[in-house]
Task: structure prediction
Amino acid sequence: MLNRDTLGALIFLAFFTAYAVFAWQIPLLPFEEMDAVNSASIPKVYAVLGLIFSLLALLAQAIKRQHNRDAGWPQINRRSIGQTAILLLLMWVYTALLEPIGFLLATSAFLSAGFFIMGERRWRVLLLASVPVAVVFWLIMTKLLGIYLVPGELWS
Amino acid sequence: MLDGILLGLSTALQWQNLLYVIAGCFVGTFIGMLPGLGPITAIALMIPITYSIDPSSGMILMAGVYYGAIFGGSTSSILINAPGVAGTVASSFDGYPLAKQGMAGKALAIAAWASFTGGTIGALLLMLAAPTLAKVSLSFQSADYVALMCLGLTAIAAFSNKGTFLKAMMMTVFGLTLSTVGIDPSSGTERFTFGNTDLLDGISFLLIAMSTFALAEALSNVLKPEVKQANSEQPMQIGSIRLSKAEVKEISPAVGRSSILGFIIGVLPGAGATIASFMAYAAERNLAPKALQEKFGKGALRGLAAPESANNAACTGSFVPLLTLGIPGSGTTAIMLGALIAYGIQPGPMLMQDNPDVFWAVIISMYLGNIVLLILNLPLIPYLARVLIMPKAILTMMILFFSLIGVYLVSFNTFDLFMMIGFALVALVLRLLAFPMAPLLLGFILGDMIESNFRRAMMTSDGSLSIFWDKPLTLGIMLLAIVVLAMPLLSFLRLRKAALKQ
Result:
């Protein structure tokens, strides 16, 4: 099994390779081509530095490997992974719905769904910790500070 | 300087700024007490609010949050042995044993007084050091700035935990690459936008800070629940918060030494509260007489006082490079720099002349912040400690909500929120792989500044790189950066040699 430091270095190696490919494709403006430093120079430097460091990290792992084979993976249970994934998805849905259905509705639904996912089952808590928060925040923003918050494009 | 102090006093003592200090310390303590949430998260959550107030008030608020978060971190270190902040880990060595012996109140009082003294001595030193250094740095040119920033970036990696140097460097470069997204300010060329108009402006720093710290910290608390939190459900015995004369006498020299040590370490780029507190702890243990030495780790008063005063002094010290050079040395000051730039204020040697109110108000607010922590937060600790029992579901969701809406209120663009969720996922994976996050933030913030200064330097030198070693000052800083870069390599080789010999 891959040790986690090796995996990290490999991920960065892949990222910096991709970055380097795009860095060498940055279109230059005509007048820039004669300049010593142009828009592509610094990204190229970063790409090379990134590649050097990720290769060094791989090399260090290859040397170290003879000594300790299993650099510990953290212990995480499945349920936590599931919860985290659903929370990320929930944030995505909230973002997608924020402008169409409006701040008040989206936020109340987001908060109560989140509490539910985190294991809160008392419906009173679910409601009391979500709707009032959304309403109070909305009142402070729109009435007190005069900041516009989307009322919902679907119904306006 | 007297004018400056008076100006700072008159700004910081305006009633709304006083309110900001108090609110900042309070909110900071609250967030800092929560295990897993650090000062960067606390400050990031404040930034959307600071956009609607003027710069000096905004900085005062953020500085208050910073001290509060460090103080709150000590509280959870002492009470439940779960430091919310890396800078207060050393405080739990002796603080938690004290609390277990039923002297939690005493431990908290020592922490508060030591922090207060450390912060105050730090603020005094800052007041003396900053204007002098600002005068010196007026003569700095673009090439010197590039060299200084290189030093800052390598230093934060070199001072990170043992064995994570390369990881920290990869994160630094990752941050630098992220800063190149968007229209290149000097030529107008589009870079890494992939035809997406939402990326033309680049990635906002608030987005990066919120997703890699606030979101990622809240989510990783869900992913890896802290076992220690279970302890907090038992009712806590705080005990008396009085200190006897003998106790004060015992800790005073330790506090004095650690404050000065902490301040100096805080000024250095890359090293911050964490290193300062560990060094002060180690130094006090070595300095202590034999009989006392054995008490360290089992509830020695000095063992608690030393890291507490050092980390607060270091927090203050880390403002020196930010205010005088405009170069942050830590993740926390990086985020403050981002906020200042958003105000259109360029920190650096000109800050004292262009915006003296900001400069001095921040310094004066440090004294106020320390006083607020002492007289307001200390008595409230037993009540604040109950916060730790607040349902985790509610806390996590509130942080997710405030992070998302905070970014939305600044950009009013849901594309930013989608990007934020993506970055939060990336940060979560990187955290699992044990990558440090602060170098990313620092690299991202310094990226733009390095590029523009580098191009300015190259323009003045007609495209010759020799500008980076022609002047002794530039050369000196450059060499220092290289030495810092080579240090971990040397220690790696030495370890390897020893391992091969066996």
Chain A touches chain B through 65 residues (CB under 8 Å).
